Amino acid sequence: MARVARLVYYPVKGCAGTSVDTADVTPAGLQFDRAWMVVSPEGEFRSQRKHPVMASIRADVLDGGARLRLAAPGVEDLLVETVTDGPRQPASTFTWQGKGVHQGAEAADWFSEVLGLPSVFVGLAPEHERVTNGEIPGTAAFADAHAILLTSESSLDGLNERIASRGAEAVPMDRFRPNIVVAGWPEPHREDEVRSLSVGGVELGYAKVCIRCTVPMVDQETGRKAGPEPIRSLADYRREPEGGVSFGIKMAVTRPGQLAVGDEVIVHS
């Protein structure tokens, strides 16, 4: 039986994830997933692609999202009273341009110090609307493009076998920053064939395979680049016709609800 092995949400885009046993799933993904984002003064999002240290920044969601505790190596923790409706700040991802709610000068200064360049911290605006593309459309918060990233343990096992055959060290699943990790599928990359599934009280629909950038080569514990794996080995067998290598799938939420680690994953098509 396939089941949920792990659930993770990432409160601040590009920063460390939080593993949970249960999660509320909204139309935009796991609750609080990428609900905040660090941007340049012009609004371009900050990411591990250019700033791998972001992996070592942790944001703990407190009091139902009313506060965040920010922590990073070498600086004092910062407690932020989140702003749900205030001054707007330009904000953008790869596929979306809009505005977020400025979270204040103190948070902006804190991220600017950690990243070593001027930065602004923003949250979702009440009017935030975003339609995601793919085979089944949906919506998302500040994620790159889609609500849910789903991977499987069997896919990682198969990849790590290839990495080991090169004499290199296996990589952990956190390199791929998934929201849902599935255990129990016997074959690697079974997720590629899934078009709709249900888990707990949630239904998800396939949008597209996930094309990987350089982020999987960042050690998520230290915030330092640690390539060339796993991208080097993925390039041997996971090249996509449109370019790049893939691992995992991106999904839209077709029925919001709740799910938990251990829930059965039922594939409908």
Plain-language structure description:
InterPro entries: MoCF_Sase_C (IPR005302), MOCOS_middle (IPR005303), Pyrv_Knase-like_insert_dom_sf (IPR011037). GO terms for molecular function: catalytic activity; molybdenum ion binding; pyridoxal phosphate binding. This is MOSC domain-containing protein. This protein is mostly beta strands and 269 residues long. It folds into two domains: 3-8 and 17-29 and 132-268, PK beta-barrel domain-like (M1 Pyruvate Kinase, Domain 3, Beta Barrel), CATH 2.40.33.20; 32-129, no CATH class. The chain has helices at 105-115, 153-165, 231-237; strands spanning 3-9, 18-20, 22-26, 29-30, 36-39, 58-62, 67-71, 78-81, 88-92, 97-102, 120-123, 131-132, 138-139, 148-152, 180-183, 196-199, 202-212, 218-219, 224-225, 245-255, 257-260, 265-267. The two termini are 16 Å apart.
Question: Concise description?
Answer:
The chain is mainly β and 269 residues long. It has three helices and 22 strands.
3D shape: globular
Q: Name the helix and strand elements from N-terminus to C-terminus, one letter apiece.
A: EEEEEEEEEEHEEEEHEEEEEHEEE
The helix content, as a percent range, equals 10-25%
Task: Find the count of extended strands (DSSP E, 2+ residues).
Answer: 22
CATH class of the largest domain: Mainly Beta
Unreliable residue runs: none
Query: How many structural domains in the coordinates?
Result: 2
CATH architecture label name of the largest domain: Beta Barrel
Strand content: 35-45%
The CATH superfamily of the largest domain turns out to be: PK beta-barrel domain-like
* Overall pLDDT level: 97
Distance between the termini: 16 Å
- What can be said about the biggest beta sheet? 8 strands, mixed
Q: Which structural class do you get from the secondary structure elements?
A: mainly beta
